[in-house]
């Protein structure tokens, strides 16, 4: 079964719509689609869907990273895997499957942790799509793309899909320009905990009864046996205790599955939620690469729990975000023979696309774009002192340079590094 994806993509690209850029042409869209190199992070429930969608949308070059191996319990929703694949690399099996089904796609698997690769690896991609199930990996990738933007002025968009039960979200993040994953972090609800007094004396929910059995009753009854959620006998005992507690207080809804969910803190993965969110991620990637339509600004929520709710929201960057906020950028000069004027024009103005930058150092200005300075022709290293940095042994400017320009909302902070 070989699929030719050109027909459906051709339709999507055929003409400009009311919101398309004036300069858009179908040829442009097709060229960019053929040229884009996409990285998919995660080949699990969401990742399988994302890989399939991207390949069927005519993306030609895809890389996929996942450090996990296939488990039997994945097979109900991670549809690129078969029973004989259990124990093998998710990235490798998913890539092999896609290659068999979709004509013309070059797909490269990496059975690795994301941390195994350096900045140069990530810089080869046009766009990154994340289908991850944890916050740590998202934060790491987010910091990587923000660092790339800050150090190389290369902007690799990050499209992040997330699902939890019947709910999901998609974020489109352009590093340093729109809110980054770290900016969104404050929206993530803290893990639910229940006050002990509620568990001990005033349970109202089935969860309270289960947590009571888990935290209070079990250690009393079995002081020498640690509860093991993977032991079916333990789970049955826990369920019976919780059920009794619920009966005592007239609470309904304690089931064995619920008990397991609460003690393991599991939210079930739902295949259809993954499909909806992966499709939206792929749409955003397709629009960004081809420019055929504007992108989502910049987060979309999906809730299929009670009816269907879909909403999008424009979320703003946090000024003091520890990752993309106004922290100093590094500017590397490779020779000490650079004058202040050269530095201002060739390094600062060009690299940060400024109009008329003024540069301040330690309270005074060292460069004024309009008026010029007597120091313009002096070497930068003579005007600002450098000192050795204990981290990398290189010479760094002792204080930050502050750059002001009419194109900037906030002053730009720079640290000059001499390599
Ligand atoms: Zn941020």
TrEMBL record:
Pfam families linked to this entry: ThiF (PF00899)
Active site: 197
Keyword ATP-binding: yes
Pathway: Protein modification; protein neddylation
Record's catalysed reaction(s): ATP + [NEDD8 protein] + [E1 NEDD8-activating enzyme]-L-cysteine = AMP + diphosphate + [E1 NEDD8-activating enzyme]-S-[NEDD8 protein]-yl-L-cysteine
Coiled coil: none
Annotated keywords: ATP-binding, Cytoplasm, Ligase, Nucleotide-binding, Ubl conjugation pathway
Record GO cellular component, one term: nucleus
SUPFAM superfamilies in the cross-refs: Activating enzymes of the ubiquitin-like proteins
Segments forming domain THIF-type NAD/FAD binding fold: 29-301
One MF annotation (Gene Ontology) recorded for this entry: NEDD8 activating enzyme activity
Database matches in PROSITE patterns: UBIQUITIN_ACTIVAT_2
InterPro entries per the UniProt record, alphabetical: ThiF/MoeB/HesA, ThiF_NAD_FAD-bd, Ub_act_enz_dom_a_sf, Ubiquitin-activating_enz, UBQ-activ_enz_E1_Cys_AS
Entry's localization field: Cytoplasm
Single GO BP term: protein neddylation
Predominant cellular place of this UniProt entry's protein: cytoplasm
Recorded family membership: Belongs to the ubiquitin-activating E1 family. UBA3 subfamily.
Function: Catalytic subunit of the dimeric E1 enzyme, which activates NEDD8.
Protein name as catalogued: NEDD8-activating enzyme E1 catalytic subunit
Organism for this UniProt entry: Eeniella nana
């Amino acid at each position: 079964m070989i699929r030719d994806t050109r027909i459906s993509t051709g339709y999507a690209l055929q003409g400009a719509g009311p919101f398309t850029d004036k300069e858009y042409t179908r040829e442009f869209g097709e060229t960019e689609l053929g040229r884009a190199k996409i990285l998919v992070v995660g080949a699990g429930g969401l990742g399988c869907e994302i890989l399939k969608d991207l390949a069927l949308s005519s993306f030609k070059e895809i890389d996929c990273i996942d450090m996990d191996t296939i488990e039997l319990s994945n097979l109900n929703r991670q549809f690129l895997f078969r029973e004989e694949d259990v124990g093998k690399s998710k990235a490798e099996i998913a890539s092999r499957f896609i290659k068999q089904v979709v004509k013309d796609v070059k797909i490269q698997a990496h059975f690795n942790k994301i941390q195994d690769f350096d900045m140069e690896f990530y810089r080869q991609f046009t766009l990154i799509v994340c289908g991850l199930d944890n916050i740590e990996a998202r934060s790491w990738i987010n910091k990587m793309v923000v660092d790339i933007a800050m150090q190389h002025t290369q902007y690799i968009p990050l499209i992040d899909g997330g699902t939890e039960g019947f709910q999901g979200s998609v974020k489109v993040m352009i590093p340093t320009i729109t809110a980054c994953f770290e900016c969104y972090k404050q929206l993530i609800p803290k893990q639910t905990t229940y006050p002990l007094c509620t568990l001990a004396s005033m349970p109202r929910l089935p969860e309270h009864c289960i947590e009571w059995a888990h935290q209070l009753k079990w250690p009393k009854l079995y002081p020498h046996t640690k509860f093991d959620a993977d032991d079916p006998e333990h789970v049955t005992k826990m369920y019976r205790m919780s059920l009794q507690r619920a009966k005592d207080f007239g609470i309904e809804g304690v089931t064995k599955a619920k008990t397991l969910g609460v003690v393991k803190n599991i939210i079930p993965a739902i295949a259809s939620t993954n499909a909806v969110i992966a499709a939206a991620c792929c749409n955003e990637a397709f629009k960004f690469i081809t420019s055929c339509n504007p992108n989502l600004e910049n987060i979309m929520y999906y809730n299929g729990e009670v009816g269907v709710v879909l909403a999008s929201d424009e979320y703003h960057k946090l000024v003091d975000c520890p990752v993309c906020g106004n922290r100093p950028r590094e500017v590397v000069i490779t020779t000490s023979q650079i004058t202040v004027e050269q530095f201002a024009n060739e390094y600062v103005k060009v690299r940060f696309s400024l109009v008329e930058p003024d540069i301040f150092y330690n309270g005074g200005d060292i460069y004024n774009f309009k008026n010029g300075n007597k120091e313009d022709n002096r070497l930068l290293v003579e005007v600002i002192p450098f000192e050795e940095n204990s981290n990398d042994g290189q010479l760094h400017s002792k204080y930050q340079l502050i750059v002001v320009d009419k194109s900037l909302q906030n002053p730009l902070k720079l640290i000059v590094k001499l390599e």
